[in-house]
């Protein structure tokens, strides 16, 4: 016992193996089921409610467009808030309080945001369950995440660099714009992929904001069912005869989007980082 | 001549393909202080870390040769590392305190080795803190976090922590280079006090310090032990040109 | 020169204004969100009574019986089950990843965890329906839809997030500390138990609370395998309903403007407060940790 003293490490290795096998099981089971029945035409055909042979073209377009729009809205807002939190002359306690506010908002259950978006946009302003409603709800869900990860990325830039820039006569915002943001860009890009993936997989929030069906064409106030919502609906209350296969196919497309977003942002982020740390540096 | 405590015979260490120590042989007498000097990157730290086999934490490190402590071959594969490291304490360049209380820092080692009795533990902690000349400054504050101590105090705490496991050999890797002159002087005093009771191998970049505290001095360059002898001899009449060049500041 | 200076100062002010307005918008929207919840919840509680609503277990929304005690209990049970399972495995993954794995294993592990943490919750729900529910039914433990199934699916879903955060926490223990501990004669087990885990405790707690908050707030993965029983408690293997799943279910039953819609705000506020409580303690812990 004393002599080797590696029992915990062995136990951890076995437990890790078990955990990874189970996680991969989820991914592989979904891929297997979907690939067994894979048809390329699901990517562009329209869904059918009662008959087999429906696709998920509109859902695919809705997912990509809504998530991209939500990112376009929440990134500038979140970044600006993070910059303001870092640069405005606030007492330390206030700044910490506001950071805490965003940290608790970061783990707000999506269904809570969905409920309020539903009450305000649909209930009060009488917007339909639509692309626009869903996009706004996604934006509200995403902004606190952006604020928190931007704050963290910018805080990771060494203070000495900031002081160096200020000592050269740069103003606070010039320092942020020319030094802090470029220096933390790789971290922001890395998080962007995760954030895109998370929004693309979101469903609880969208059921009552974007709706459970699609319109005849894409439009702001057309119903905006996404892939994740479609997967849920088909798997739990679908009526089409090929619902099992369709759910898995939807899952594959969703997984592919997720993996591409993460992989793409990772590669981009690593290249930025390698460029920053110069030859010989880099790596994750 | 006192008994030989540590004996090294043609010890070589590589990090991957890069040699860090080449064929180093030396003896350290029991109770003596050996200072190791030499230019940066010459292998001083590696020499220390091979004595408690901490080099093996670097996965690509390779060791060759033999080392005996009290006649026991410590490089043999079946050597019990825990027993070895209990006998050989180590102090690092940066003062390292664990994020625990002062008491828990010093009690860390004894607890590892099975000391549970609260009374006995207190006795060991107090004794070690006294040996490290820290007791007067921390008595009554043993439950405070160790991170609240100054750098010099933390280094003495590290010494107390090492002494608490009752080692016979103490390795020190530039123990004062991160400290202010006053704190450095106190550590030096301690080393002089420990002399005789413990065998000390100390790496330093401060030549005056080596001259002040050590009985023997070894000069390393590019992984080779160029010269080793009584400190007074090395500093006044080195036999090797390279040692002389280093001592007069022509190499660094 | 002076003109240039002046224009620089002006543009600094303008941009600071832009940034301030944008953050003002963000604060307003988020503040408004909380206000809507609180007002709806207060309106409801004033009518139906706070204690009565929280502690009662009868739910017949159309008959006006709106007590959410059962959902709170089910939420707590499902979450506790998930955390109990995820905790040991997550710590194990973190220890393996940061202390045991070689470079190659570490990279593979990291990729699996990153991907798995972004797998949509409906995909975990799909797996629950395809594997867990039939499995539990096969063991003769009821219909398969129930609290245990939900706990299992949820545990798997939060495992990647928790592992990665715990991994980071353990990685934050400096190499010097490991070496000091080993030089004092610690073996690897002792090093983990006496140094690594205590030294990274603050980070591990943050990881735990973040995962806990996610688990409490998860809707879809739970909804798909939970069975949705609201009338009474059917045991751990029996069906149930959590705060999140019931909000989802009853958004259609109690539309905006209907007299009892406020109960949904009330449930959402309970959720939000619960999560804030968790992350609030977390904030204090992060700030309280004294790392030199
Ligand atoms: N973990 C390691 N991996 C690879 N090479 C290493 C490692 N540690 C040390 N080296 C190399 O081995 C050689 C000797 O290093 P060592 O740390 O023993 O030198 P040193 O004399 O203590 O230097 P310094 O005075 O700067 O502390 C150096 O060239 C160093 O680059
Ligand atoms: Mg060194």
CATH class of the largest domain in chain C: Mainly Alpha
The number of E-state strands of chain B comes to 10
Largest sheet of chain C: 2 strands, antiparallel
Rg of chain B, nearest Å:
18 Å
Parts with pLDDT < 50 across at least 5 consecutive residues of chain B: none
**Annotation field: number of helices of chain C:** 12
- Following the backbone from N to C, one meets helices and strands of chain C in this order, namely HHEEHHHHHHHHHH
Share of helical residues of chain B: 25-40%
Mean pLDDT of chain C: 89
Structure report:
The complex is a heterotrimer of chains A (284), B (252) and C (292). With 284 residues, chain A is mainly α. Chain A is built from 10 helices and no strands. The radius of gyration of chain A is 23 Å and the shape is globular. Residues 280-284 of chain A have low confidence and may be disordered. Chain A has one domain (37-277): MetI-like (MetI-like fold), CATH 1.10.3720.10. Chain B has a 6-stranded mixed beta sheet, sandwiched between helices. By secondary structure, chain B is an alpha/beta fold. Chain C has a two-stranded antiparallel sheet. Chain C folds into 2 domains: 2-48; 59-288, MetI-like (MetI-like fold, Orthogonal Bundle), CATH 1.10.3720. The two termini of chain C are 46 Å apart. Chains in contact: A-C, B-C. At the A-C interface, α1, α2, α3, α4 and α5 of A face α1, α3, α4, α5 and α6 of C. The site of adenosine-5'-triphosphate has 12 residues of chain B, from β2 and α1. Residues 15, 18, 20, 38, 40-46, 58 of chain B line the site of adenosine-5'-triphosphate (ATP).
